[in-house]
Amino acid sequence: MFINCHSFHSLRYGTLSIKELVRQAHELGAKQLVLTDINTVTGIYDFKKACEDLGIKPIPGVEVRKEGKLLYVAIARRFSGIGEINKVITDHNFDDKELFETAPEFKEVLVVYPMSNIPAELKTNELVGVRIEELNFLIRPEYKKYISKMVVLHPVTFSTDEEYGLHKILRAIDNNILLSKLTKREVCRQSEYFISEQHIIKTFERYPQIIENTKNLLEQCDFEFDFKKVKNKQFYTKSKESDVQLLRRLAYLGLEKRYGLGHEVAQTRVEKELGVIDELNFCSYFLITWDIIRYSNKMGFMHVGRGSGANSIVSYCLGITDICPLELDLYFERFLNLNRKTPPDFDLDWSWQNRDAILEYIFDRYGKNHVAFCGTNVEFKYRSIFREVGKVFGLPKEELDDLSKKPMESHDRNSVVRQVQKYGKLLEKFPNQRSMHACGILISEEPITHYTALEMPPKGFPIVQFDMNVAEDIGLEKFDILSQRGLGTINDTVNLVKKTRGITIDIRDTTLSKNEEQANEYLAVGKTIGCFYIESPAMRGLLRRLKCDNYRTLVAASSIIRPGVAQSGMMREYIFRHNHPDQFEYFHPVFEEHLKETYGIMVYQEDVIKIAQYFGGLSLADGDILRRAMSGKGRSIQKLQEVRTNFFESCKKKGHSEALTAEAYRQIESFAGYSFCKAHSASYAVESYQSLYLKVYYPLEFMVSVINNQGGFYRTEVYIHEAKMSGGNIQTPCVNTSEYQTTLKGTDVYLGLMLLEGLETRIAHAIVEEREKNGDYKSLEDFIRRISIGIETVQILIFIGAFRFTGKPKNELLVEARLLLVNFKPENRGLMLIEEPVQEFKLPQLKRENFEDAFDEIELIGFPVSCSPFDLLQTKYRGSVFVNDLLKFHKRQVKMLAYLISRKHVPTKKGTMYFGTWIDVHGEYFDTAHFPDSLKQYDFQGGGCYLLLGTVEVDFHFPTITIHKMAKMPMIPDPRYAYDKEKQYDIHRQIKEDVSMTSRKPYPQAHEIGLPRGRLI
């Protein structure tokens, strides 16, 4: 009897999850249920599964609304009816096609109109819904004639009084109004909760035909849907046979290119993989991916194929990936095997500059009716909950800020705040809005509206109304089309080297960088700032601890830095065994046989699966559950518990001791906190090497490209410092030399206009375009005549030194600018400046103090360029020890003066600690550890230079200073405000630092790990 049910996928309206909706219906004995969320089919597939689990017949539909008004309820008679409804919603979302008061011509859809919107004539598939509270209206003559076409309309939106209150809050949030301003029109009726079917029949006993009509409606609907059938584009060519032939031909062409003729091992592997790909009907998926890569290569774009797809030699031969699976002993079954229950996907990266071009190709090549992004449900988060709920209760902005930033236990306990907290808790995990998945693209055989309505978010690409998990469930395999700045940096560096030096670098030749001795030397000492994935303080420290000077070690390092490995204590143990290979034994022969390359330590996801299979005797199905848990996909505590039970039982049968089994599983379990598969680490390592190679041999071109791709782990200042350390002469922006981006002329690095805070992007581009079109600017007057600009913007350019080509001091230029622009109207620009030349004034010589330029630079770009931060200190002291000598001071106390680069928050059992990264006066980097006890008295005070006192701890070749005391050193007063004492220290607060926060669990200490270094029995 329930043909109009809302879940919380009726965004900011419904209050029931799909599971809760179905559970409540089941408890009332419902045998059929219709889900009709408002203008969406987001929940229908989860709804079908939930219903069938409890023996309820599921029926999908949509409640069609326009501007909040209910027009009709559309209920699918067959699954094809959902496609008809989807088309109507999609046309409305895309083309603003009007949703009319009456439904269009449907073939497999039943339409139920509310009594407030009965059309003049009802079609054969159209009915009128009567609510319990509307029964009295049926005595009226105008309604009597419809009784033969009437059904029971009892909407379900909430389940309790508390949830009704939550519904009203959601409606206020949606309408952006105070709770007290809500009207009846904007909320559901107070009767919209489940009641028993017997109660409905009793209430409608005078109108048995309405009951009968409702039963007939439910009887004639059916939600037939095959979850297992793959919905992706079936064939790249016209048939499976021709797909198989094409894939085989391309694989063998690539085999010859990659390995030459007669490589039997590679050929055997290709044949094996082609057989599995064919059997699993994956040929079209490979060919579509190859087609995308072919287009990318044609356009000259650089890409990286990573993830488990790099385990495939066929993908290597097709050019999808650049990792040789034979070199690293990568096994294909990690990507695709006959036991795998869920389809894999390729992870493909492009530069952030090229990704949109790739997306446009995919949409054009495969048809806009067949391609869409996965959606994602953006849930209410802690901050948004308190802001949104607090706002509808009328709390002022200051209090909203306070609520959203502080933990609940520290909130004021007044009655309104208690209400905000009460409803805020209910909103946790509620979907708030739909958004676009970061990278998942779906390409379907049938028009994609067969399965979902589409929405068009602001980013301009259509999205389906469900997320990647539902897409996977219903048989739509996604293609991950990602973007990253690291590839942009590599690509831009190659192009810049070609431009500045005339050298063509084949950076795609992966042997080029991996075998470079100097690149390996840089790697071993962590000289990797700016390089993809290996520039963070933690990674640079790891590289030094490992003395990482080769590709295989870098592959391992890329994975052991991940939280899963580090959290388990295996990162620390790997470092020990790498440095002392003669000081441990494998604690079981299986670990020696399968993990010898990584010293018996599980580093990759594959290692975990190997140990689970060969040591624990688990099935491949259980191994797949572990794989999904480790990659963060579909992590199920219940399934993991089942795997654990199976593991212990199987180990017992194999004769393993309880202690041995427990230790092996402890190591396995730790990987559930995310780790990399080996192929993914290898892909990252290749890109890291590519960027490192460019940094080593073309450092200025590389750092300019890093700056233009907006950096990576650090702020721009750090990369500019790196350019300076590489011999670059850093120049502030100049209107006659600078571009929008940073440029390189010889060894002069001209900072781009884009770095100027306060300069509009439009004006920055206009300055460059006008100069390219009509030549250099001859003077400040010439510039103002040619560029539409106001005095505030001119002042920014003067203060940064952008008119230094005139030879005039900044003070004089400022006076001239004000004279030029006094009472100036933009429409008179040409007339005034041409016909009324500026009168020449003899200005008194205004003296500029030392370091005024530096303070201008701090104000406008965030850091000094014309001098070092150390030059701006009041003290002349520069430290007693410098970075290059730290290794000599193990266990000794040192005093250093340093400039703060970044600090990372790290949780410990005793409270918050930080790791700091600094440079000394020579520009060299070092790291510090700040424990909770030290921070209580000597906390960070923002960006700037500090005097540090601490003890050096050298841990496997890597020195860290444990800080006991520190103090921020005072800078000289701002000389620009010599006569305004209040402003002399304002600008000092703009000195920046990078702060990264993490909420991970504390990593274990060496004594807590207890990882056995001897044989366990």
Automatic annotation (TrEMBL):
Q: Which domain of life does the UniProt lineage start with? A: Bacteria
Domain (Polymerase/histidinol phosphatase N-terminal): give its ranges: 5-68
Protein name in the entry:
DNA polymerase III subunit alpha
Q: Which reaction does it catalyse?
A: DNA(n) + a 2'-deoxyribonucleoside 5'-triphosphate = DNA(n+1) + diphosphate
Keyword presence, Transferase: yes
A single GO molecular-function term is: 3'-5' exonuclease activity
Q: Taxonomic lineage per UniProt?
A: Bacteria, Pseudomonadati, Bacteroidota, Flavobacteriia, Flavobacteriales
Species per Swiss-Prot/TrEMBL record:
Chryseobacterium oleae
Region feature Disordered, mapped onto this chain: 997-1017
